[in-house]
Amino acid sequence: MDTLSRSSLAVPEAAIREACGETLLPELGVIEQVWETDPILEEDLAERAATAFESLQLENVPDGGEIALGVGSRGIANLGTIVGGVVAAAQDHGYEPFIFPAMGSHGGATADGQREMLADLGVSASAVGCEIRSSMDVTEIGRTTNRDVPVVADTNAVAADAIVPINRIKPHTDFDGTVESGLSKMLVIGMGKQRGAKIAHDWAVDWSLRNMIPEITAQLLAELPVVGGIAILEDQRDDTALIEGVPPAGFLDREAELLETAYDVMPTLPFEEIDVLILDNQGKDISGQGMDTNVIGRRPFAIQEPEPDLPDIKRIYTRGLTETTHGNAMGMGSADFVHANLLEGIDMPTTLINALTASTTRGVRLPPVVETDRAGLVAALSTIGIVKPETVRVLRAADTMHLQRFYASTALIEEARQRDDLRVIEEPKPIQFESGEFAAPSPHEMGG
Questions:
Q1: Which residue, among 94, 69, 95, 66, has the nearest Cα to 82 in the 3D structure?
Q2: Which CATH topology does 42-265 take?
Q3: Distance (Å, rounded) from C-alpha 140 to C-alpha 124?
């Protein structure tokens, strides 16, 4: 789709204002969530990662043996430093570590694309001190017992003397289970490359990832030299809170325990009922579905997976894509309106490949496109029934990952005053626009 045809899809502000009539806009103030966190100090990260690696079951790895380190999830804080610490520890013990991209079909499902994605994550040969072996080749290591599903894994990893996935443990956007996004999913889907990811998501339609991932993980642990994994937990501010070596024995049980902790500290929206949610950005570095379904309470593209009960959000307006998502607009179908900037940033082949692999094509349906922020807000407000500026519940966030500070309408500001977990930073004032766009910066970028 060229620039001309894309721009023609954006509805002009004048047309929306004429169709909606006079729409009074609320005033917005600023609030923030009050969090108590205890992150690992930056200068201690590499050492903590090394200690986690040294706790794994390395006694059967031969001297000079190759250790395949699986890396590939986006949005992990300090990833390069953590991976570098593991690499250094492995080398100090006389091993030959190498990195392999464990990211399923991401990076356009090409070896070069996945290598570039790793570099964008701060994981390059020069940055972490070891070789990157990027290939889409997989080896079938067996088939599941009851369903006869092929189990495949990165060929470079299979040939190594040991395999160690490095990943963050967090709630998944598409399903609920004892293990969700983390070490096991990286082994089953990430290490399976494009073919393994497609197999998993195809079978998940009837089997469900909540059942598939534990079963295939157990098979991978039994048949491959997985000596453990490096689990990462992050706090509400997305700072690294824990780095732990998880041995093969009790692998699934320990990951399940860490997932419960991740749920406890997962940042969420501070209100259960919202009329209009404005998100400045979405992207794969924010969430696998662009906008975290656990945050927005929408899972319209998951098959046989229930949506979260809360929050209840009437309209979502999304303003753009992050730079790091490289045009992947997975999840945009959860929005009710999007800005023309989001449309201009879409790389449709990358987006569709991701959607086809994950069997979530509804998630990449294009919502109505508006020309300006004012048009997006007017369109959203005019489609939720009769509302008043002083009572309408409007919240603007940077994205579904950065959730400490928000712009909030008067009704939400007044509610925040009554709560110990929220702090009012600025009183409500009229929304300022510049050529129809929000003049105020993203709340995550505000000073103070």
A1: 69
A2: Rossmann fold (3.40.50)
A3: 28
Entry pTM: 0.78
The residue extents of the domains of the chain are 3-35+268-445, 42-265
Q: Mean of the pLDDT values across residues 213-225?
A: 95
The Cα–Cα gap between 156 and 135 comes to 8
Look at residue 217 and give its three-state secondary structure.
helix
Write out the DSSP string of 304-372: T-PPPS--EEEEEEE--B-GGGTT--TTGGG-SEEEHHHHHH--HHHHHHHHHHHT-GGGGPPPPEESS
State the Cα–Cα distance between residues 340 and 344, nearest whole angstrom.
6
- Looking at residues 323-342, what average pLDDT do you find? 95
Nearest to 398 by CA among 280, 309, 268, 284: 280
pLDDT computed for residue 305 by the predictor: 60
Residue 271 near residue 314 (C-beta atoms within 8 A): no
* The predicted structure's pLDDT at residue 180: 81
Q: Please choose, from the candidates 296, 300, 330, the residue with its C-alpha nearest in 3D space to the C-alpha of residue 315.
A: 296
**Residues 152-185 pLDDT 10s:** 999 999 999 999 999 999 887 666 678 888 999 9
66 φ/ψ angles, rounded to the nearest 5 degrees:
-85, 130
For residue 337, give the amino acid letter. Answer: F
Look at residues 246, 316, 318, 325 and name the one whose alpha carbon lies nearest to residue 283. 325
